[in-house]
Amino acid sequence: MAKINERHSDIPGVAPGFGYSHAVTTSNGLAFVSGQIAMDAAGNLVGPNDLAAQTRQAMTNLQNVLFALGTDWTGLVKLTWFVTDTSQLQDLRDVRDEFLRPALGDRPNPASSLVRVAGLFRPELLVEVEAVVAVDGS
Q1: In 10 A of CB 49, how many CB atoms?
Q2: How are beta strands 127-134 and 4-8 bridged, if at all?
Q3: What is the DSSP letter of 49?
Q4: Angle value at C-alpha 49, between 45 and 51, nearest 5 degrees
Q5: Which residues partner with 113 through β-bridges?
Q6: Sign of the alpha-carbon torsion through 118, 55, 57, 107
Q7: List of residues 6+ apart from 34 with CB closer than 8 A
Q8: Quick one: which of 53, 78, 57 has its CA closest to 13?
Q9: How far is CA 82 from CA 36, 103, 115, in A?
Q10: Cβ-Cβ contacts under 8 Å for 33 (sequence gap 6 or more)
């Protein structure tokens, strides 16, 4: 049975999570990353009404979490996306690929799920992304 190694709540470049950890690492070499949203390090919304800008900020936050865990995009196992509107899905995919293609090259993207939701915890948010990542389990 996997054991929790560490709960990561203070991530450089990411607004603090109030009441939760940004990531939890386990002894079996996996980390579970909480949903990242379009808030900058100071907690300000980035990209009101702009799915591409919000996706870019959420991915930047996710990247900061990955770096804090000692890994990068190559360790990404699965992404789970929550979006309020799927009509601009290609914008999300294009921004995702700005981050993944340089790291993965021609290799396939990680596993992924996308869920359309009626809303996120703040009405101005359009996207949230959470991840499962392979890390050193020792």
Answers
A1: 8
A2: unpaired
A3: T
A4: 90
A5: 80
A6: positive
A7: 17, 20, 21, 22, 23, 130
A8: 57
A9: 10, 23, 5
A10: 22, 23, 62, 65, 66, 130, 131, 132, 133
Residue the block writes with tokens 């009101």: 48
Q: Which amino acid is present at 15?
A: A
Other CB atoms within 10 A of residue 3 CB? 8
Q: Give the distance from CA 65 to its chain's centroid.
A: 8
pTM, whole model, 2 decimals? 0.96
Q: Give me the tens of pLDDT residue by residue for the chain, a chain 138 residues long.
A: 889 999 999 999 999 988 999 999 999 999 999 999 999 999 999 999 999 999 999 999 999 999 999 999 999 999 999 999 999 999 999 999 999 999 999 999 999 999 999 999 999 999 999 999 999 865
Amino acid at residue number 109: N
Question: Kind and range of the H or E element at 61?
Answer: helix 51-68
Within 10 A of 119 (CB to CB), how many other CB atoms are there?
A: 11
How far apart CA 59 and CA 130 sit, in angstroms, is 10
- Nearest-Å Rg of the Cα atoms of the chain is 14
